[in-house]
Specification:
It is a single chain. This protein has 192 residues and is mainly beta. The chain is 7% helix and 67% strand. It has one helix spanning 2-15; strands spanning 30-43, 46-60, 65-80, 83-99, 106-123, 126-144, 149-155, 158-165, 172-177, 184-191. The protein has an 8-stranded antiparallel β-barrel with strand order 1-2-3-4-5-6-7-10. β6 and β7 (149-155) form a beta hairpin.
């Protein structure tokens, strides 16, 4: 269902794209946006619940280039066979975007982002912490619904992440590429 809604939103944005002036972004604009999600899955007594929120702020340094910062928090609780695992993840990052059509109602952009990630895992009475960083690049679209509000969709098309748990000798490295619908982030943008 999530994939269907995200796909419909992206198609809606593309279908109603036009080049009207008066909406869109300009040099000196500031925007705040973000995304959140909640997932709940259960099979018999096994349960998996997660909640995430990621606010971000950006500033247009030129007509086409914006720089910004984001902060994210995710909490996950997994119950399997009477045991419980809790994972709390905090990430902080910076991003840069290049908008190809910033002054139009419909904008296409490319984003490059860097993130620091720290996750704390609690299993029974044992705690462990994992720290790492990541870099990703991908395309996105935004569509202005009014002078100040826009819908935004971003696909994490290419990424690299590395993480290492406390006391571990080896790190876990992940390289990803693709436009899987699970990689779409949908958000709401408010422009000042």
């Amino acid at each position: 269902m999530k994939k269907l809604i995200l796909t419909a939103a992206a198609v809606f944005s593309l279908a109603f794209a036009n080049a009207q002036d008066g909406e869109g972004f300009a040099k000196g604009d500031i925007f705040v946006s973000g995304s959140f999600g909640y997932d709940s899955e259960s099979t018999g007594d096994n349960k998996n619940n997660s909640f995430s929120i990621t606010p971000r702020v950006g500033f247009f340094v030129t007509e086409n280039i914006t720089v910004g910062a984001r902060l994210g928090y995710t909490t996950q609780k997994i119950e399997v066979g009477g045991g419980e695992t809790k994972i709390n993840t905090l990430n902080a990052g910076a991003f840069g975007r290049y908008y190809f059509t910033p002054s139009n109602k419909f904008s296409i952009f490319g984003e490059l982002g860097f993130d620091y990630v720290s996750a704390k895992t609690e299993i029974a009475s044992t705690d462990s912490t994992t720290d790492g960083f990541g870099i990703n690049v991908g395309p996105g679209v935004s569509y202005f619904l009014s002078d100040n509000f826009a819908l935004e969709a971003f696909w994490g098309a290419l990424g690299y992440a590395t993480a290492k748990a406390d006391g571990a000798t080896d790190s876990t490295d992940l390289f990803s590429i693709g436009l899987d619908l699970d990689d779409i982030n949908l958000g709401l943008v408010y422009k000042f």
